[in-house]
Amino acid sequence: MNLAEISARVLAGERIGVDEALVLWEEGDLPRLGMLADAIRKRLHPEPVVTYVIDRNINYTDICVSACKFCAFYKGPEDPAGSVLSQAELGLKIEETQALGGTQILLQGGLHPDLPLSFYEEMLRFIKGYGIHIHGFSPPEIDHFSQLSGLSPREVLVRLQAAGLDSMPGGGAEILVERVRRETSPRKCGAAQWLAIMAEAHALGMRTTATMMFGHLESVAERLQHLAGVRELQDRTGGFTAFIPWPFQPDHTALAGLPKTTAFEYLKVLALSRIFLDNVANIQASWVTQGPKIAQLALFFGANDFGSTMIEENVVAAAGVSFRLSEAEIRRLVEEAGFQARQRRMDYSLVI
User: Fold this and answer.
1) With 343 labelled, which of 64, 144, 198, 350 sits at a CA distance of 20 to 30 A?
2) Alpha-carbon span 172 to 247, nearest angstrom
């Protein structure tokens, strides 16, 4: 099938396969992919609304045994600089978030070798005392808790949910291809396990997001394999609220020699994600890695969500990228692009 035929199918609302997506990538220029993605965005979201969420990314510990090659944030267990947040520190961060109108906490951390499951349950109960939505832990964390506790991932999720976990972020996905994961993060859960844990979360009624960190050791075909895995699981569960593709930031990591992903390639990946993931309602722009102007442009390449105000963000910042936006700045950027800015919750319900 040629480029024109594939484009016509996309505009007609038909699903394309991996082979057709590869043709779009190889033969379609950026304006064509942007046009197709924007058409899908308008079909799914006919109102000119761009959403955002006010939250804070709290990393409860930087101590981690995974030692992923792409991470500049973690500290080894033997590193005296590593730390675990106290409840007092957590409380201050939550109070600051709520004072700024925040509706949720994004809670993630390193794979600590010594903390028991009860530590995480107590942390969740403490945070829940503030009456805030907890969007926490990623599949690698759940897999890690499972290994340490001897419980199945489902049993871990049931206990965490009972302690206050409301939903899960899509972190730790990187590229959902075993070859890539063996090279970049061999100690972290594999692609099949990432998807299986997300399926368990969905079965328990939790909504989650999905991510893709691209631009390191993967091929374009492997990016499409990642998208196919997300789409197939979404067909079965419908549990993903959004998809967030973001480019790898190499500085200060073990892969520091790799070139940085260009804005051109980012927008092309974003558009292809919107075209391919026909069953995921929302696509999020990554201003945290791309900066405000490219994120603004992303609204015309398939994105309908501006993501989080990121009151606090440590992982990308550790790689030397430190864009910051206030709620007022996000609203201004969205409105300058010709859209209405609306604050949302994790499930994409709007804050009145």
Assistant:
1) 198
2) 14
